[in-house]
Amino acid sequence: MCGVTTTDVPAATDAGYRRRLLDGMAACIRERGYADTTVADIVRAARTSRRTFYATFADRQDCLVALLHESSQRTIARISASVDRAAAWDVQARQAIEGWIAAVQADPPISLSWIRDVPALGQGHARLFQRETMRAFVDLIRDLTDTPHLRAAGVRPPSEQTATILLGGLRELIAATVEDGRDVETIVDSATEATRRLLGPRP
Q1: I want to staple 115 with a disulfide (CB 3.0 to 4.6 A). Which of 54, 100, 134, 175 is the partner?
Q2: Mean pLDDT throughout 170-189?
Q3: Is 178 helix (H, G, I), strand (E, B) or coil?
């Protein structure tokens, strides 16, 4: 049974029910993974009803996408806040990776769900979410590398294709590390080196 959530919100409000259901979904993913989670599991963990669930979300997939949207936004914000834009390029690259890894360490099962579960959901809302999230990460990379300080060091914003290649590799490295039960902090050096090589100064 998934752990019961304890979010202290007014149960009488729609926002309160939504928060409890999202926390219930998160608790179930941490315990058993999305594939083995049912609506019954979610409402049990959230201490709500199926009627409340379907008044809030269209289905289980809709609930997952809403949860992972929140998670991805927090991750992007954490990466951005981790980077000192006045620092040297190699320092900024490491800070960005460390920010991402710290976000993963905060909740590995949820990070893994974003990487593994969403692509398996197929077309429709989930596919749109995946593309929008990847676009947000690409925009983050381009924003972080588009500063006068880095331009003076020979760094330029990468193309969308290059940024996507970097993101895909880092996502797979993170997922494999979490799946193997290893500490994601162990990949910081490799991930930083790959980032420096792919996005570093060019003539």
Answers
A1: 175
A2: 98
A3: helix
- Cβ atoms within 10 Å of 29's Cβ, excluding its own: 25
Could you identify the residue written with the tokens 């925009």? 139
- Spatial CA neighbour of 7 closest among 67, 74, 72: 67
Compute the average pLDDT of residues 148-158. 96
Q: Which two tokens stand for residue 3?
A: 């752990």
What local confidence, expressed as pLDDT, does residue 11 receive?
Answer: 43
Secondary element (H or E) of residue 31: helix 14-32
Q: Is the dihedral of CA 166, 171, 172, 174 positive or negative?
A: positive
Find where tokens 């902090």 sit: 185
> What token pair was written down for 76?
């992007």
Q: Using CA atoms, how far apart are residues 73 and 129, in angstroms rounded to an integer?
A: 12
Could you give all domains of the chain from N- to C-terminal order, each with its CATH number? Answer: 14-57 (1.10.10), 61-199 (1.10.357.10)
